[in-house]
Amino acid sequence: MADKYSRRKFLGTMTAAVAIDAAAGSVSAAQTQKSGKTRIIGIACSPRKGKTTATSLQVCLDAAAQTDPAIETELIELAGMRIDGSLAAGLPLEPGQKDDFPQLIPKLSDPSVGGIIIGTPVYFNNMTSLCKAFIERCMVFYKNSALKNKAAGILAVGSSRNGGQELTIQSIQAALFSQEMVIVGAAKPNRRIGATVWNKGGDITKDEFGMATAKNLGQRVARVALQLKAAAK
User: Fold this and answer.
1) What is 44-101 written as a DSSP string?
2) What is the pLDDT at residue 38?
3) C-alpha–C-alpha distance, residues 226 and 123, integer Å
4) Helix ranges, the chain (H)
5) What is the pTM of this model?
């Protein structure tokens, strides 16, 4: 029984699942590639749907889309999804346990995706447990390098201007380096490690500095994604 659920065997099984899911989505991927579009996906890792992290990430994605007509964007909110990080260790699902991560596999491994932007609130100077579980489940992409050479940017929302945003960004970046992603920060004039947003408890878009970093990050991810696509031809 222990061998049946060994981590190595689990990773092999999940790698096969990635290939199957990618093949299932090949029609839409081919259509996107034919149109010459490069997709940027935003992953909102707040347990609260439609709140400050999602709003900030949408600002980031809108800026990416405005960078070039070839850019398409999509916001995915993990709020309400069941994503168990322990499954990355090869543990089996409990009877009746729901797992929503598989539906994300074809989206993230789609060859037309040139960049991924992860957004998370800051909890105790680090990412949310939902964000950590998502990153751990991305172990499925590790073996076949499905995320290799995709641009990656990080957005963090804290309860104060210096509320652990940069520590959180660094923590996520460290994990994404293992996927051989191309890690980028916000473009000039900010030139920050990522987007650092301050949630004052009201309208998040009133944080002018934070919104500027979000827009600059979106622009930077889009430009690098296009450069990587051009270099791969």
Assistant:
1) E--SSTTSHHHHHHHHHHHHHHHH-TTEEEEEEE-TT----GGGGGTPPPPTT----G
2) 97
3) 33
4) 7-24, 26-34, 52-67, 105-109, 129-137, 165-177, 208-232
5) 0.86
Residue 134 makes CB contacts below 8 A (sequence gap 6+) with 43, 45, 78, 83, 85, 101, 118
Instruction: For residue range 188-221, list pLDDT tens digits in order.
Output: 887 889 999 999 888 999 999 999 999 999 999 9
Contact call for residues 114 and 29 (beta carbons, < 8 A): no
pLDDT above 50 for 3: no
The residue with tokens 């069941």 is 82
Residues 6+ apart with CB under 8 A from 197: 52, 56, 155, 156, 157, 158, 165, 204, 207, 210, 211, 213, 214
143: confidence class by pLDDT, cuts 50, 70, 90? confident
Whether domain 7-232 has CATH 3.30.70.270? no
Residue 86 zone, left/alpha/beta (φ > 0; ψ -120 to 50; rest): alpha
Domain residue spans in the chain?
7-232
Give per-residue pLDDT as tens, 80-97.
Answer: 999 999 888 888 888 888
